[in-house]
Design brief:
two-stranded antiparallel sheet; elongated; 2 domains
């Protein structure tokens, strides 16, 4: 059976496919009746399902991370698409499941993204910058983890390969900005490649989707990234980088969120750090807008304006009806 495109489902569509249970919440109505809310998904997206008291026996053995055979139909509930389950969910044996088939993945070939990263590395004229970048991007074991990591558990680039795609977008934007503003292209490239290394240790990939690791919950990616950089810098021969050079690389990580209210330790204090911050914002919000345009919860039909705010953008968005 071909994979189900959840984003393309319309009200009335029938579903008889395997989906992953991203989450299960057991709740109680105002009248005291039990019910459950499931988030079901695959690589194309996800859809919710309210399972009322009478159908709760359908969920025997079902928990977050389960892959289940679903039979039901898409309906509209309070203005949103929802899946109405019409038969008991059959749990598929874990040994028969490849979880990557049920998790969202970037559409760009990872090999093409790596070609860009490696070209930037080869072009670096500064041996100190190249040495620092190669501590991570010259390490095959790190590259495997980096290529799989999402850019976030929910939100921008929340896909397998999302982090690699985000970093290439950030680097492309930052390099163009540095050329325009007479900045150091190699330096801002190093900042782009290193700024989110902490996400490799911040996010986990499980059968239920993307989540935070223990370190991610406790420290988040900026702190983890600085710790990772410091550990690897200590492995370089003494004198490879000066103390000031090491601090500047750390500054990219610590300042790339722009302001303290958004998680930065300090505001950017160099041209290259400022350009990196705005390149990071451009990649994140550009991804948010692209996803919003294709979100059936925001545009269930042919609406010009989204039916509600995008939680990622905190605003309604406009889908133009004309061509240029």
């Amino acid at each position: 059976m071909s994979a189900l495109d959840l984003a393309a489902l319309t009200v009335g569509a029938r579903v008889q496919h395997e989906l992953m249970v991203r989450s299960r919440e057991d709740k109680v109505t105002k009248n005291g009746d039990p019910f459950a809310v499931l988030q079901l998904g695959n690589a194309s997206g996800q859809i919710s399902a309210n399972v009322w008291k009478e159908q709760l026996p359908f969920l025997e053995g079902v928990k977050a991370g389960s892959v289940v055979q679903v039979i039901g139909a898409v309906e509209s509930y309070q203005g949103r698409r929802q899946l109405k389950i019409t038969a008991p969910l059959r749990v598929v044996a874990a040994s028969a499941v490849n979880i990557d088939e049920f998790l969202p993945r970037v559409s760009v070939d990872a090999a093409k993204l790596w070609e860009t990263v490696d070209k930037w590395r080869r072009e670096m004229r500064s041996r100190q910058l190249r040495a620092a970048v190669d501590l991570f991007f010259g390490d095959d074991a790190f590259r495997v983890k980096f290529e799989r990591a999402p850019g976030a558990p929910r939100g921008h680039h929340a896909q397998i390969g999302g982090l690699l795609m985000h970093v290439v977008e950030v680097g492309t934007i930052a390099r163009a900005s540095a050329k325009t503003m007479r900045g150091d292209v190699d330096l801002v490239t190093a900042g782009a490649l290193l700024h989110d290394i902490g996400k490799v240790e911040t996010y986990s990939i499980t059968a239920a989707g993307f989540d935070y690791t223990q370190g991610g919950f406790l420290l988040q990616h900026i702190v983890l990234g600085s710790l990772m950089l410091d550990r690897r810098l200590r492995t370089l021969p003494e004198g490879t980088l000066s103390e000031a050079q090491e601090l500047e690389l750390q500054h990219f990580i610590q300042s790339h969120h722009g302001i303290q209210e958004h998680g930065a330790a300090v505001r950017p204090m160099t041209l290259e750090a400022e350009l990196l911050h705005w390149a990071d914002q451009s990649s994140a919000n550009g991804n948010n807008f692209n996803d919003a345009m294709e979100d059936p919860e925001l545009f269930p039909g042919s609406e010009e304006f989204s039916v509600k705010k995008s939680w990622r953008l905190d605003r309604k968005v406009w889908r133009r009806q004309h061509e240029w």
